[in-house]
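thought: fold this chain, then report.
action: predict
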Amino acid sequence: MKNYLILPAVLFSIVVGYSQKNKNAYELASPNGKNKIKFELVKNAPKYAVSHGKTEVITPSDLGFVLKGNEDLSTNFEIKGAKTSTFDETWEQVWGEKKKIRNHYNQLIVDLEQKTGNKRKLQIQFRAFDDGVAFRYVYPKQNVKDSIFIMDEKTTFNLKEDGKAWWIPAFKPERYEYLYTASPVSKLDTVHTPLTIESKSGLKLSFHEANLIDFASMTLEQTEGTQLKSNLVPWADGVKVRVKDAFTSSWRTIQIAEKSGDLIDSYLILNLNEPNKLGKPSYVQPYKYFGIWWAMHIGKYTFWEGEKQGATTAHAKEYIDFTAKEGLHHLLIEGWNKGWTPAWYENRMHMFSFTQSADNFDLEKVVEYGKSKGVELIGYHETGSNLINYMKQIDAGFALYKKLGIHTVKIGHVGSKLNMKEWHHGQFGVNYFRYVLEKAAQYDLAVFYHEPIKDTGERRTYPNMLAREAARGQEYNAWSEGNPPSHVVILPFTRMLSGPMEYTPGVLDVEIKQGYPGKRIHGTTAQQLAMYVTFYSPIQMLADLPENYNVPAMQFLKDVPTDWKDTKVLNAEIGEYLTTVRKDKNSEDWYLGSMTNEKSRDLTVSLSFLDTSATYEAQIYADAEGTDETHNPTAVAISKKKVKSTDTLHLKLGGAGGTAIRFKKL
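observation:
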C-alpha cells in the first residue's frame, strides 16, 4: 500500500527557514532528521552539500553537464520553482533478502532555467532517506529542437575528510573482475561504483547509482584531494550520452551508515527503482542448482567439442541423476551449443549458435530426460560479446527455450568490449542489457548475467532479473593465483551493495585436488558453507564436482534456502569479518553465516533475533579445531545444541574460515 503524505511541519519549517536567509537556497532533511541535503545557487551555478547529524559528509559540490559544442549546462541558472514532499510506503519483494521493505523519504524538486542563450531547463530531484541521500537530473522536453549530446557530467562529491576506500579500477579490460584495493580516498584511481569509504569520522559511505536507464553508467574519478568527480563511460566516439529531446539520469546515491553492517541493511538502491512491472510470474523462482561449470574451469572437461568435451548427452544424464538424487531440481550445462572453440574467451567476434546443439549433445533429449527426473535445465547463451550475432538469433534462442519448458537463461558476455568496440557499462551496454531483460520476459524467461553491466536495482521493476556476476568470482580460484581471504569479506560491503551476486560458492574441496597443480581456494570448507547466507542471491550454485558432495556437510547445502523473510547483520567490519542471519521465507527457521579474512577470530553473537517463545535446535557447521586456510581446511566440525533467544553463541573461526548454522524451530 502506498501512502502519499503531506510534508511534515518540522521539515517544512527547515526548508522555509533556510530559504528566508537565502532565496536561492533550500535544505532537505531525512525523516529522522539525521541526513540533510543543502541546495544553493552560487553565482548562478547549482551546488549541493550533505551532512549526517553534526558531521559534514559532502561540502558544496558541483552539479550539471557539458553538452556538445562546449555548451555549459552547469551555470547561468535561475530557480523557477521548488517543491517538497514526503513519501512513505511498504512494498513486498517477489523474492529477496527481506520480504517487506519500507520506502520512506523526503523529496525536494528544484526547477532551473538558464537566463540566456537557449534558456535550457534542468530539474534536479533530491531525496533524503534515513540510510542515505540521492539526486538525479531530469532534462525535460523543451523548445530547443535538437538531439542532446552529453560530453561530460560535472557532478562532484567533495568529501569533507579523507578516509579508507575499497575500490576496483574502471576502464580496464576485465570489466569489474578485479581484486579490491584499499587506499586513502586521496590516492584513488578512476573507479567503479559501488565505492565504499570509511571516513576518518567513522562514517561508512557507499557511492553508487540507481535506476540506470538509457544513460551511461557513472565511474568516479579522483581529481584533487578528496574530491571525486562523475566520469561517465563514453561511447567509442567519445560522446558520453546521446538522446533525443529529453533525458533522466540515474540516481546518484550516497548510502550513509554509522556501522559497517548498516550498509548491508540499506535498501536505498531498490527503493529508487520503479515498482514491479511483471507481478509475480510463475516462471520466476529462487532455487539452488548444480552445474558442470567447475569441472570445465579446473580442466577436467572443456567448453568445446573434443575428447574432454563437458557438454555431452551422457554427462548431462549423469548430472541429472545426481541432481535428482540430492533433491535439487535445476541444472546448468554450459557448452551445449555450436560455436565453442579453445579460443572462445579471447577478444574476437565469436560466432555462437543459439539453437543448434553441439556434437554429442542432444538438447531435446536432455530436457526430456531431466523432466522425467524432476530436473529442469537452465539455458545458457554465451555471446562472446558479439552482440551483432546474438541480436540476430535472440528471438529464435528464447523461443526454443520456451518451447522446451526452460524458464531461466544464463547469458555471458566474455570480452573486453561489446562488439569489440563499446564498453559493457556505457550507454550502449546499458540499453542492451535492459533490452534483453525485457525481451526475456516476453518469453517467460528469468535471467542471470555474467560479464554484465553493474546492478542498479532493476530487479524491483523486473523480478525476472535474478542475479549477475559483475565482480571477481569463484572461478579465479581455479586457474589464477586465486582470491585472497579478504576478498570474500570485502564483497558484501562493496559489489553486493548493488544487488545479488552470482559468486558460485559451494566448492567443498577447497584444495582442488582434481584441478590445476598449485591452484586452490584460499579459505575453508566451512567458509564456503557460510557464503550461502552471507552472499545473497536468489539462485545459488553448488559449484563443486558431484563426487565432492558425499560428505556430512552437504546437509547444510540441502537445507539452506535462497529466499528470505528477513535479514540482519549481527557483526561486521569491512574486509575483516561478517556475521549475517536470515529467516527462511517458507518456514520458521533462521540461518547464520559468519566469515573472516586471513585472521582467526572468536566472535560472540546474541540470538535475540530468534522467536522469544520458542526453542531451536542449532545445527552448527564450523571449522574443526586447528583448521584454517592451510591446515586441514576441509575439516568441518558438525554439532547440535538447543538454544533460545536469550542465549549467546561463541563462534571460533579459523583463518580464512567460517561457520554456518541452521536454527531449526522445535
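thought: worth noting. Confidence is low (pLDDT under 50) at residues 1-20.
final: C-alpha cells above.
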